[in-house]
Amino acid sequence: MKILISADMEGATGVTWPADVMPGTAEWERCRGMFTSDVNAAAQGFFDGGADQVLVNEAHSTMRNLLLERLDERVEMLTGRHKSLSMVEGVQHGDIDGIAFVGYHTGAGMEGVLAHTYLANQITGVWLNDVRASEGLLNAYVVAEYGVPVVLVTGDDLTCDDALGYAPEALKVAVKDHVSRYAAVCRTPARTAADIRAAAKEAARLAVRREPSEQGPFTVAVEFDAEHLAMAVTVVPGVARIGERKVAYTTDTMYEAIRTFKAVTTIASAAVEEQYG
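The structure corresponding to this sequence follows.
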């Protein structure tokens, strides 16, 4: 049994505000340890449940946040940018039996601690086939095309609620309870590590490869907070404006959809001005 852990940081233990996840800040340096604790607990739980291999794919920002030296010695970690499938890189090689979304969060325009979808601010909403989409939902559809089930999701309580829509069978662990976008009632790392490890052990039984999903076509709509961003991203083939601040595109597969989404967000990010956005 081989497990892939997609590790994001906004949904990690103790994280509640931007500086906690911004590389180079004192707050980020402190929170790296708690983020690593969450990921390590998940890995150890999967080993407890019978996994032979656990690959951790760093999925936050620079993708260089976890402390490798604090991980269980059986773990392997994929760190750094750039990757074909970004947050779920590694799932495409045909040897992954289950995936865990650790440290995940809700999507742009939704309630949740540090809620966003790829870009921290500029995107106000993303929809997949008219359903509001978080990163978890988008990535769940991607991995389904490779026959890999989502078996564990950790984050705030609203992230766990969101996961009911895209991974109803997966184990969920809330490491904090949402109060506002920048506030939460947090559990201690010792407590969350125990909860995550226990859930991962149980989740290992769900790590059974399935028939690859063919649910396309997929229409992705993205709404920005400024009209010039919508204009800028139309340089991506197939992306067209459907409103003053909104664009959409359609693909046959989620592989194509997520790669196009990455292109759209990269261009939009480059079009943001420091003061006016």
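Residues 4 and 55 are 5 Å apart (CA to CA).
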